[in-house]
């Protein structure tokens, strides 16, 4: 993948993720604000209804007391009846409409104690009761056959008897309202009544939340309030209570919810958690996608490097074989059996070298697919180490180095595959030789740790950085030391080592410091 395209994809995906997170956060905040606004409207409506119910209850109390006192008086002090009459004649239908409205006015002399007069005076108070009687009748004019007889035939009659009109009721209510202003607030409404009404109205709207309430008079607290109520300018709902005929009031019913934020958040908790889960899934998917993109990019680069190295590794033996074949075909050389045999030996060695390279790649491929058949027998680790050292000691000696063994483990028998485990040790020794810029100096140790044997291969080569140390056992990975081909190989040796050791229920790891060499450890369970 092109580097610019890769960077562009990462930027676009990052911006998309940030946008999604921003939208989710904005949605949650908007939902909470909407819930808070809806909650505020509901609570305001509740307060208005509670205040209205308290006012109606107070008015009903006065009305009931008035009715009780009126009933207790035998006869009114004075009685007056007024009657209004309306007559209309319809010439088209020969019908006559009679409508009358009579008002009976009764005056009662009731003691002022009805109003709980604060002055203590025993003045009399006049209470007037009005009763209305409304009558509607329709008559039809009828004449006899001789044209002389005449009569009014009733065809409709309705009569209603009622009390005060709406206007008269409002006048009476206004009198009560003015009087009630002089009474202490705790005599007009009780805490028990407010708690009952608030509980009912909140329950009717499925609001289950703790609340505190209080009645304030012109900004000052009264006795009517809950124990934990505290005045606060913010997050407090209020509504006027005990309004007069002009809609004005000196009292306010206040309501607060200490755990309102928690209640509002819980109301959208389900959707918020679902949104959060999906956002986390997107983030994980995004992180995985970025990781896979970077990984694939690295693998692509490593495979390109591998192909280049494989080509380089095959180029030399192929060229050598071609030269040997051309030399054999030369008429002057074909007669010289010694030369022919030498050239054939070179062809065989180079072919064997290429075959070994191919086998190394195929071996890793089979390991990846779990197709490599590894049979295990009782073997001696010390014997395998000695055998592996013989494979590379000539190369080490040719470069002026050494391989010293310190086989100090008292027990060394393990269950392993002789061939594969020998290849493991050879690969690790060969790796130590490759990454020793000067003369290879290698020491091999064995020691016992509980019921396991540890093989330690220490060199004094170039060493590795911490970044390289984390990736050194990955397939195709090789640390470059300048020229891409200055160290031969395909990055498969240590990957092969790791798979074989793990298949033997062991573990392999390394310690290294740049410029101070490396130490590889193989830990295997003893029989």
Automatic annotation (TrEMBL):
Which UniProt keywords are given for this protein, alphabetically ordered?
A: Kinase, Membrane, Phosphoprotein, Transferase, Transmembrane, Transmembrane helix
**Name of the protein this chain belongs to:** histidine kinase
**What's the source species for this entry?**
Flagellimonas spongiicola
MF GO annotations: kinase activity
Q: Spell out the PANTHER family in the cross-references.
A: HISTIDINE KINASE, TWO-COMPONENT HISTIDINE KINASE
SMART domains annotated for this entry?
A: HATPase_c, HisKA
Query: Ranges for the Histidine kinase domain?
Result: 309-527
Q: Determine if Transmembrane is one of this entry's keywords.
A: yes
Q: Which Pfam families match?
A: HATPase_c, HisKA
Specify the enzyme's EC class, one word. transferase
TM ranges: 6-28, 263-286
The record lists the catalysed reaction(s) as: ATP + protein L-histidine = ADP + protein N-phospho-L-histidine
Answer yes or no on keyword Phosphoprotein.
yes
Q: What is its EC number?
A: 2.7.13.3
Q: Which residues form the signal peptide?
A: none
InterPro entries named in the record: BphY/WalK/GraS-like, HATPase_C_sf, HATPase_dom, His_kinase_dom, HisK_dim/P_dom, HisK_dim/P_sf, Sig_transdc_His_kin-like_C
């Amino acid at each position: 993948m092109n580097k610019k395209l890769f960077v562009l994809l990462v930027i676009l995906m990052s911006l998309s993720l940030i946008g999604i997170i921003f939208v989710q956060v904005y949605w949650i905040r908007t939902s909470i604000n909407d819930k808070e606004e809806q909650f505020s409207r509901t609570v305001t409506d509740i307060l208005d209804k509670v205040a209205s119910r308290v006012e109606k209850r107070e008015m009903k109390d006065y009305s009931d007391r008035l009715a009780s006192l009126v009933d207790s008086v035998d006869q009114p002090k004075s009685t007056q009846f007024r009657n209004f009459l309306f007559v209309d004649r319809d010439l088209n239908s020969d019908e006559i409409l009679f409508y009358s409205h009579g008002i009976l006015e009764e005056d009662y002399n009731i003691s002022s104690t009805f109003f709980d007069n604060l002055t203590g005076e025993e003045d009399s108070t006049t209470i007037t009761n009005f009763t209305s009687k409304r009558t509607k009748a329709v008559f039809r004019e009828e004449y006899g056959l001789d044209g002389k007889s005449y009569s009014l035939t009733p065809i409709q009659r309705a009569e209603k008897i009622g009390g005060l009109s709406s206007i008269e009721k409002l006048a009476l209510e206004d009198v009560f309202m003015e009087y009630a202003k002089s009474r202490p607030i705790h005599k007009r409404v009780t805490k028990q009544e407010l708690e009952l009404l608030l509980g009912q109205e909140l329950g009717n709207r499925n609001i289950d939340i703790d609340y505190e309430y209080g009645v304030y008079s012109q900004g000052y607290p009264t006795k009517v309030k809950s124990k934990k109520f505290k005045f606060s300018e913010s997050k407090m709902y209020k509504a006027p209570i005990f309004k007069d005929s002009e809609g004005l009031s000196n009292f306010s019913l206040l309501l607060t919810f200490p755990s309102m934020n928690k209640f509002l958040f819980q109301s959208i908790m389900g959707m918020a958690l679902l949104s959060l889960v999906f956002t986390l899934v997107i983030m994980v998917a995004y992180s995985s996608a970025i990781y896979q993109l970077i990984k694939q990019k690295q693998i692509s680069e490593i495979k390109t490097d591998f192909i280049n190295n494989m080509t380089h590794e095959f180029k030399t033996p192929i060229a050598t074989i071609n030269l040997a074949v051309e030399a054999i075909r030369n008429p002057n050389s074909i007669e010289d059996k010694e030369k022919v045999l030498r050239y054939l030996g070179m062809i065989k060695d180079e072919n064997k070298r290429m075959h070994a390279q191919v086998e190394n790649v195929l071996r890793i491929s089979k390991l990846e697919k779990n197709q490599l058949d590894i049979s295990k027998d009782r073997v001696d680790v010390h014997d395998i180490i000695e055998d592996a050292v013989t494979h590379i000691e000539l190369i080490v000696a040719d470069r002026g180095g050494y391989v010293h063994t310190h086989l100090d483990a008292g027990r060394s028998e393990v269950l392993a595959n002789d061939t594969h485990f020998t290849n493991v040790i050879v690969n690790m020794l060969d790796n130590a030789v490759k990454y020793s810029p000067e003369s290879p100096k290698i020491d091999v140790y064995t020691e016992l740790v509980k019921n396991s044997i540890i093989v330690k291969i220490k060199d004094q080569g170039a060493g590795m950085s911490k970044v390289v140390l984390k990736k050194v056992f990955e397939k195709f990975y090789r640390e470059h030391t300048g020229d891409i081909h200055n160290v031969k190989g395909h990055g498969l040796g240590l990957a092969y080592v790791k798979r074989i050791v793990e298949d033997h229920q062991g573990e392999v790891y390394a310690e290294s410091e740049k410029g101070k060499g490396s130490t590889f450890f193989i830990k295997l369970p003893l029989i």
